[in-house]
Each structure stands twice: as C-alpha cells, then as structure tokens.
Model the fold of this input.
Amino acid sequence: MTDESPVIELKNLTKVYQNGVEFRTLDNANLRIKKGEFVAIVGPSGSGKSTLMHLIGLLDTPSSGTLLIDGKDVTKMSDKERSGMRNRILGFVFQYHHLLPDFTALENVMMPLLIAGKSREKAKDVAEKLLKEVGLEGRMEHRPGELSGGQNQRVAIARALSCSPAIVLGDEPTGNLDTKTGDMIYELLRRLNKEYNQTFIVVTHNEDLASKADIIIRLVDGKITVQ
Amino acid sequence: MRYELLIALRQLRARKFQTLLSVGAIALAVMILTVSHSLLLGVTGEIYNITVDKLPHVSVSPEEGEDYIYLYGTLVGRIGSIEGVTAVSPFLTGQASFRFKDNSLNCELRGVVPSQENEISSIEEDMVEGSFQEIEFSRNTVVIGSKLAEKLEVNPGDSVDVSFPNANLLSLRVVGIFHTGSPLDEVLAYTSLGTAREFYDASNAVNGVSVRLRDFNRDTEVANEIKKLGYNAKGWTETDPAILRFIAIESTSNAVIYGLIVVIASFGVVSTLNLSVISAKGQIGMLRAMGAQVSGIQRIFILQSGILGLLGALFGTFAGVLIALAIGQYEIPADPSDVYGSISFIPIVVRFQDIVFIIFAVFLLNLITGVYPARQAAKLDPVKAISSK
Done:
C-alpha cells in the first residue's frame, strides 16, 4: 500500500436512529483519509461528530453504506473480527480517560497489549517507552486516583498508542481539561502524529485547536464538508 | 496470565469488603452443608451398623416347591467358598407356641449352630442373662428374647412347654435371655439345630441359610451367585428395603435443604457483581474499545463469581470439617432409658471425596450464577458505556 491509498474510506455511509421518529445522524457521508493525516472533526452538538467517530472506531454499525479500513470492508464483520481490528489497528482517547482504577498507569498502558495476547514482559517494555514519551516516567506506578486530569489523559494517550495502531481516534480528548492542559495534550497528539506517521482523527469543539489540523471536517446535520 | 483473570482478581481485591461478605456468606452456607453432611453420614453409618450389621446379608431358602434344604452341609461349604463371604449359618425355623403357667404366646423358634449364628447376628453381645452357647451343650434348652420372657413371666431355669400343630410337644429349659432393642425381642427364640429337628420332625435338613459378607453392599451380587447353585437367595436390600428407603429419603431431603442454602448464598454474589457491572460501565466500554471481545468481558465477571465461590467453598469446607470433627469428640452422657443404645459418641463421618465434590459443585454453581452479571456486562452498548461517567 502506498501512502496515497486511503487508510479510511467512507462510501455513502449513513446512520439512522429509529427512536419513534427517524433521525439521520449521518447522511450519505463520503470521505477518504490518508495515512499520517491529522484530521479534526468539528460541528455543533448533535451534528453527528461522535457517531462518525464511533463508526470509524468500529464501536457502532452503519445503517447503510460501506466503510473500508485499511482496504477491508468492516461493515459485515463479526464481533470477534471487529474486536481484533480495534485492538490492532485502532487506538482510542475519550473525553473521560476510563483508565482502570485498580491498575497502575503502567498496567493500564499494558492492557491493550495483554488483550492482544502479548507477554507481560513485552507489554511492560512497550508501556514504559510510551509513558516516557508522554512525559510520565516518574508516575508509572501511580494509580489513576493519584494522578491529575492531564496526567491521566496522557496515560490514556499512551494506552491508545500501545499496540502501534494505524489510526488514533480522539473524542473530545481535551474536553474535560482546562485550556492550558488541553493545549498541551493537543500538542502532544500533534507531535506523536508527526513522529509515528499515524493517522489521527480528533473530534473537538475547539475551533482554535481544529485550525491546527491538516484537514478539517465540518459536520452539519449529518452532512460532511471537507476543508 | 490472561487479562481477564488479571482484571477479575484486581477488582475482587479492590472491593475488599464486598469480596469478604460474599466469600463469608458462601463459606457459612458451605460450612453448614459440610457439618450436616458429616452428621448425616455418621448417623447413616450408625443405622447400617445397628440394623444391617445384625441382619443376614443374604438369606438362602429352599428351591422352588421344596420345604427343606437337604444335604445342606455341601451347600454351606460351597457358599463359604464364594469370595467375600465371612460366615454361613444354616438354620431350621418355624412357628411355635410357648406356654408357661397360664401365659401362652406364639413366636419363631429357630434352631441354629450357636457359634455360626453368632457370627451372623452377634447375638452373644446382646445376652443379658445366661449364655447363648448353652443351647448347644445341653439338650432341650432355649434362649428367648427379653420381651418374650417378660410376657411369659419366665426366668432362666424355668421350663416352658413348646407346641404347634404337626409338631412334637417339647419342654424346653430357658438358659438365656437376649435384648437387641429391636422387635425381635418379642418374637424370637433360639434353640439348637438338633432340638429344632426333634420339634419340627425334620431329620437332617434345614429350611434356610444365613450368609454374612465382608462388604454388605455386595449382597445382590452374592445372592445371584447362590441362585446359580439352584437355591432361592435374597440380599438384605430385598428382604429389608425399608432401611434403604429411610436412608434415601433422609439423604435426599438433607441434600435439597442445604443445597438451597448454598444457592441463596450464591445469589448474593450475583447482586454484588451486578452492582459492580453498573459502576464499571465506562471501564467495560473502554475495554471493548481496546479490543476485548464480548466473551472476554463475560469471562471477567464469570471468573469473579467463580473465584468467590471457590474461596467460599474452601473456607467453608475447612471450617465445616473442623466443626464436624469437634462434634465427633462430644461424648453422649449415658442415658438410663437406653434410647441411644450402644452409641456413646455423636457419629460423624468426614469423607474426603465428598469434600472435594462439595468444593467442585459450589465452584461450578458460582460459575453458572456468574453468567447473569456477565451477560449484563456484555450487553452494554460500548458507545453508551463510554459516554457514561
């Protein structure tokens, strides 16, 4: 695969919620995202940003249309195949870090590797390296309860990167942090994106942050416009 | 270590108080189960000892259409050579009418070889007056049950008149009285084989053979082997099925009641785990995002339930065995009413294989009850779970 072929491709992707009345959260979306791009998804609340991200993240299934990730049609995969894809190809950072409270920062970063079936030793090596990368070498043995919001979010970022995913998805990763910490996290994501040449897709409310992305996808009422 | 087990163990350790409560509840239930089971086994064993031990394990009767077994010496020899047979006693028995002064009663008069009969029914242990062997040494003597003696108002040394239609009238001297504590005391009298032959007019024949086995559970098997020799034979399970029925009913009702207690304790675990599923929604969603399969999420909760069950079963059986053994040390105070008979300690039997079975069964039960909270966790929509906090 050359750098020019898209790592993510949406063809007429539609998601309809039937909750009494039909509600199109995503309407015939077409989109190609290439390897290494840093993509920001912006738009008002309820415009379908999160739905788009959950579909790309294989956490939700589309009502119609096709979604190709790494050239493979993922819309008809089983739970096992989708789980495997999430584990190997996708990394997630959410608004809430959702770290496991009973595990240390190091163990939390190791978790995706353990789910992948890697040995503890191997997982520990990778996790230590990543925690250093996000500037937490002194906090590896701390539990989420003993870390600040920004620190926990950095642990979550290290965790998202642990299986060297092709795509890192962020759903308002800075939404829960103060502006200064948020900027710092954003810079970290941008730096990691350049360093590892991974594709980053970040949903954000923050127009300032979005303006620093390679591509901005604007969603209004389920319709996509690319800038 | 698999990540499911790692997470399960860590969550149990983090929720120390709930874990302790769950394990404690199961342990308590299992402890009660273990103690009651040990008591039941002990009592059952004692019932076997009291009843089956004194019964002939196999009873042989004449061939179809015959009244007597002739040439019984050969038969006794052949039965004696069957593997597992420890004693064989031929007897000649029938009805007899006992009369002493104005008192008259019908009962069974059984002619036996005392030394051989004693190995079957241990009657010598039950002699309260006189000697059982005496019937062999002096002619025309009899040993009678205590209730029978009471009703006839006879004492050792008295002579009773014994008669029956088609039998020869005899005068037998009472040389001993036995007391088994069973209904036999009222309906049975022993005499020698020779005296019985004279009474029933049956020369050189018997009408039954009692057999004792090393293992009384093999009664049907040995009975079938004796049948091959051309005689009628029945094991004690066939002649006295009421004993087995009583024990079976007792064991079943016990197992049901205490099994239910364990089930209730296991349901406590279900509600605890359900709560932990609700409080860990976000983490479960995140694990799904990290690539954990639905089955992996289920395993985390089934494992937790199973581990709680296993710990509860281990502690419960340990405590239960200790308590059961302690109860077994308790000496029953001598009771003049003789209600406990020869039992001087509370009977307790702790069987290793039963303990292993209890542990395994409780573990399995908890794996099964863990399925419900596991399903709840697996049913969570990852999208909704992740947005919850």
